[in-house]
């Protein structure tokens, strides 16, 4: 299993429009963050988790020529507004399976109504094979265990991926992880988890909370993502515990 961080930024990206803070002004490429997304390669197949408004740029950067599945955590703009950009893959491959919760599909059908309306005329349409998540499933040779995390007054789908040898969990956009979900996140080789900023936030984990979950779960390694401009890579990294690092765009992990 190979993991590539397509993007590691919060909804505004970094640099943020109109901001001249030290992070947004940084020349360190690790402080240049597109919106959050993950590419997982396994057995010659490729899936992505979330498809942000930056997906076209991310796919070109990673020379992504094939896409076998899309998994959606939730339907906020920074996680799904790149969905139309699967069309070039459709041209070569045909329809692509897209996995999301029942709530996610409800909103996807509203936001992207033109995809599902037979009366739409003109222009290319993304070709999707809708898959509603209602339990564990297999895709791209991976066993996927979904679980809920709390994002303000809504729920986001977290994912545990297993290739039979290594286990990885991806948790983005949450401010609390229910106990039932924590049970599904034990014995991980890698935990990828939300860490928006230093100060508390009503809908996201802040750094102290993220580190507390990592301490409890004890994964082999942890990587922080969905990062805002409060956190500058070179300033924060030296103070993180052993085995915990800030992810950055383009980072690749072999498991």
Q: Helical proportion?
A: 10-25%
Radius of gyration: 18 Å
Oligomer: single chain
- Going across the major beta sheet, what is the strand order? 6-5-4-3-2-1-14
Number of self-contained structural domains? 1
Largest sheet: number of strands, sense, barrel closure: 7 strands, mixed
Number of strands: 14
The CATH topology comes to Metallo-beta-lactamase, Chain A
Termini separation comes to 5 Å
CATH architecture descriptor text: 4-Layer Sandwich
Averaged pLDDT: 97
- Overall geometry comes to globular
CATH superfamily: Ribonuclease Z/Hydroxyacylglutathione hydrolase-like
Look at the structure and give the CATH class: Alpha Beta
SSE arrangement, N to C: EEEHEHHEHHEEEEEHEHEHEE
Give the number of helices. 8
Strand and helix layout:
Elements: E1 2-7, E2 37-42, E3 45-49, H1 55-61, E4 69-71, H2 77-80, H3 87-93, E5 96-100, H4 102-111, H5 113-116, E6 128-132, E7 137-139, E8 142-151, E9 154-162, E10 167-171, H6 179-183, E11 190-194, H7 207-217, E12 221-225, H8 233-236, E13 244-246, E14 252-254
Parallel strand pairs: 3-4, 4-5, 5-6, 10-11, 11-12, 12-13
Antiparallel strand pairs: 1-2, 1-14, 2-3, 7-8, 8-9, 9-10
Tag the structure with descriptive keywords.
255 residues; 7-stranded mixed β-sheet; single chain; Metallo-beta-lactamase, Chain A; alpha/beta; globular
Describe the structure.
With 255 residues, this protein is α/β, with parallel strands linked by helices. The chain has one domain: Metallo-beta-lactamase, Chain A, CATH 3.60.15. Helix content is 20%, strand content 29%. It has 8 helices and 14 strands. Strands 6-5-4-3-2-1-14 form a 7-stranded mixed β-sheet. Strands 7-8-9-10-11-12-13 form a 7-stranded mixed β-sheet, with helices on one face. Helix 7 (207-217) links the parallel strand 11 (190-194) and strand 12 (221-225). The longest helix is centred in the last third of the chain and has 11 residues, at 207-217. The chain is globular, with a radius of gyration of 18 Å. The model has no long low-confidence stretch (mean pLDDT 97).
